[in-house]
Task: inverse folding
């Protein structure tokens, strides 16, 4: 069976996400991932999923090393891992300055160091049950767990957009979580993973490459592209890092136009600047058959685990998630 994941980043309610994850498990999806943001507490949603499923892997995609303290992340991860019987994957990352500072009132500084130290502390706490830590960005006088984790080692995947974080992943993580990848992304990331793995004496081939892929299944590519255009305009307009990513995908003029429109508050112009080629290069969009072909193209490009991230907001979100889950399912079913 082909490996495939499903991700949720808002739109559906927490209870609706649980229902969707149950459907995904029945249709053969390998894993389900819940984002951190404004769509409900990701660990609470995953805990509910853990009690309603029995096989599907459950992951955070991703949790921020700035928004929660490292001990809190460790406890939350151990909790979902226990409730799921050892099916949890901790996806963590640095998030974005524009979110961390503006939305949470937390200073965003030294993201690579903060990520490295968070991973080290989490692993030590789960392994030993108690941790003291004196790092550059994290200082913990002492923290102990009052329960024994189901597993003392939980897989940790790091989100990465550019080379330095990919190299760090090669040093310390079991997997990398990419986003809005093109068909050329995996080969470049594999090189960066190898550099980091070599520094740590690790085997880079054992590090899983996953990618969150915005997905819309529709009756035509034109309809799917139209549904994805607002989301790509937001990502490339609001997040400087994603704007740079789009430029590096080869859409320099479009990225500049989107940034300029967004900065002056012209959302419609930002959307108009998103070309069909941009959407096609970094998304899964079209009819069910076209989407399945695109998923396979990502696999062939070196993405070990494509993770569909259906874009749905407002009334009817659950139905759109379910439609994408059914249309792209790795296993045929009459469910």
Result:
């Amino acid at each position: 069976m082909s490996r495939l994941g499903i991700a949720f980043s808002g739109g559906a309610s927490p209870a609706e996400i649980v229902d969707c994850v149950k459907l995904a498990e029945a249709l053969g999806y390998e894993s389900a991932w819940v984002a951190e943001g404004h769509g409900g507490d990701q660990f609470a949603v995953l805990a509910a999923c853990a009690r309603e499923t029995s096989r599907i892997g459950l992951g955070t995609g991703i949790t921020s090393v700035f928004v929660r303290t490292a001990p809190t992340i460790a406890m939350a991860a151990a909790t979902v891992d226990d409730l799921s019987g050892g099916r949890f994957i901790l996806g963590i990352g640095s998030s974005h300055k524009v979110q961390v500072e503006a939305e949470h009132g937390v200073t965003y500084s030294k993201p690579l160091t903060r990520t490295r130290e968070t991973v080290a502390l989490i692993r030590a706490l789960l392994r030993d049950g108690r941790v003291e830590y004196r790092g550059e960005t994290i200082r913990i006088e002492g923290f102990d767990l009052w329960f024994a984790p189901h597993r003392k080692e939980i897989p940790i995947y790091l989100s990465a957009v550019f080379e330095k974080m990919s190299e760090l992943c090669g040093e310390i993580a079991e997997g990398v979580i990419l986003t809005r990848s093109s068909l050329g992304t995996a080969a470049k990331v594999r090189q960066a993973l190898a550099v980091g793995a070599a520094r740590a004496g690790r085997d880079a081939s054992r590090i899983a490459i996953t990618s969150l892929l915005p997905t819309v299944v529709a009756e035509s590519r034109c309809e799917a592209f139209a549904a994805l255009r607002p989301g790509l305009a937001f990502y490339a307009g609001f997040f400087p890092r994603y704007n740079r990513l789009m430029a590096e995908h080869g859409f320099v003029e479009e990225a500049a136009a989107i940034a300029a429109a967004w900065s002056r508050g012209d959302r419609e112009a930002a959307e108009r600047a998103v070309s069909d080629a941009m959407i096609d290069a970094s998304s899964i969009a079209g009819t069910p058959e076209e989407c399945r072909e695109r998923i396979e193209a990502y696999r062939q490009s070196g993405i070990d685990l494509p993770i569909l991230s259906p874009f749905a907001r407002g009334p009817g979100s659950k139905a759109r998630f379910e439609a994408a889950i059914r249309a792209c399912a790795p296993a045929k079913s009459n469910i």
About this structure: The radius of gyration is 19 Å. The domain at 5-216+287-327 is CATH 3.20.20.30 (TIM Barrel). The chain has two domains: 5-216+287-327, 219-284. The first strand starts at residue 5 and ends at 8.
